[in-house]
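$ ./design --mode recover --in tokens.txt
reading tokens...
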């Protein structure tokens, strides 16, 4: 009997799982691990959203199959969000579909539109589903940079010129996970023009749309005139409303792609539990204080992380958006590589981070740090890391001062 399966053989070992297993083992042994590895929000959803969940769940008729495409009220609420936030007009019936988080939406769209051998352009480093969703579907990945600058467009032009078959899909995500880079509307305008010229679908992941800092709101690619001819965009309630485990997201935009995703989903799921969808309506249509509060909280945590880790001897560029910092390894320890450095940080400092190589080969030399612990714990992590760096012979600022 065959025990090696085609799609499983195409998946490499999940590097980040090594650190996750070490973290779980350490915690099971009673160790205090400061977990900055997984982007799992530590905050609760708004009380009125939880109340709506309980209210609808108490109804006897709320427990049957739901709507795979999403209940109409939720699709209307998402369209209203795009209108007030981005000034983008969406038809809730043909341009919006509810997904079980953006991850499921991306994976199922990959299944819907990809044939074996298709070439997909995806960022490196990137969130794993941006590449492996298409690898599972049988595609070949050609990497492009994450940096939204001239190098990005040079890579796109080379890909179109030299790739056989020509690329059919471009995947992007800003604010980026893991690098926290951001894109502006001028960048999206060039992407849309490129995609329309070369008949390429664009899949934009906007999961961190509301976590931006320094007064610079993140744009949507759909703000570009003509973008809906080529683009679909994924968003999520996971981070903005601290609803990660609820698994509610959306795909919006191009009608052809929305139709394809909707059809595939109709074969695979019955949609999220109806009370969860009703609560998501309450989140989008109700008071938005939680969104601003979460943004401010992640901003404070960012500043504490950058300041305290810098004093510990590890300089980290401040991210402009997202709930992550993309941190280069301390120069004296770059030879360890991101995976070994992450393991040592966990073992000797009690701090879990995600090795950059787990997001693609171009992530080597970096780790991703999630802002999912409170400010006190971030400062404790910095103290632990300072001791670890000193034990490795790194001259930290405190050590130089005799502290």
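writing sequence...
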């Amino acid at each position: 009997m065959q025990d090696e399966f085609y799609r499983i053989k195409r998946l490499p070992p999940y590097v980040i799982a090594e650190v996750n297993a070490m973290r779980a083992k350490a915690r099971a042994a009673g160790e205090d691990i400061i977990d900055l590895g997984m982007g799992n929000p530590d905050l609760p959803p708004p009380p009125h959203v939880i109340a709506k969940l309980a209210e609808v769940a108490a109804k006897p008729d709320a427990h049957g199959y739901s709507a795979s495409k999403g209940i109409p009220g939720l699709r209307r609420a998402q369209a209203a969000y795009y209108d007030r936030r981005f000034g983008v007009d969406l038809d809730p019936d043909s341009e919006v579909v509810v997904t079980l988080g953006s991850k499921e939406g991306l994976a199922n769209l990959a299944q819907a539109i990809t044939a074996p051998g298709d070439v997909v352009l995806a960022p490196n480093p990137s969130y794993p589903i941006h590449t492996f969703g298409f690898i599972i579907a049988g595609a070949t990945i050609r990497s492009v940079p994450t940096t939204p600058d001239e190098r990005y467009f040079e890579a796109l032009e080379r890909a179109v010129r030299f790739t056989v078959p020509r690329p059919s899909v471009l995947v992007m995500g800003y604010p980026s996970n893991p690098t926290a880079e951001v894109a502006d509307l001028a960048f999206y305008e060039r992407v849309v023009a490129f995609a329309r010229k070369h008949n390429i679908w664009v899949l934009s992941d906007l999961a961190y749309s509301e976590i931006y800092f320094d007064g610079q709101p993140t744009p949507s690619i759909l703000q570009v005139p003509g973008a809906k001819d080529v683009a679909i965009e994924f968003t999520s309630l996971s981070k903005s409303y601290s609803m990660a485990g609820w698994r509610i997201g959306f795909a919006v935009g191009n009608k052809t792609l929305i139709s394809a995703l909707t059809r595939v989903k109709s074969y695979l799921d019955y949609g999220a539990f109806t009370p969860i969808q009703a609560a998501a309506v309450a989140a989008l249509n109700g008071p938005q204080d939680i969104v601003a509060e979460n943004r401010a909280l992640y901003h404070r945590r960012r500043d504490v992380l950058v300041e305290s880790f810098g004093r510990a001897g590890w300089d980290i560029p401040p991210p402009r958006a997202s709930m992550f910092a993309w941190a280069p390894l301390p120069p004296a320890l770059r030879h360890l590589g991101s995976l070994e450095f992450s393991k040592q940080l966990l073992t000797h400092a009690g701090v879990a981070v995600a090795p950059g190589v787990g997001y693609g080969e171009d992530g080597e030399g970096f780790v991703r740090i999630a802002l999912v612990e409170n400010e006190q714990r971030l400062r404790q992590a910095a103290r632990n890391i300072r001791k670890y760096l000193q034990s490795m012979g790194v001259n930290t600022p405190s050590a130089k001062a005799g502290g």
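exit 0
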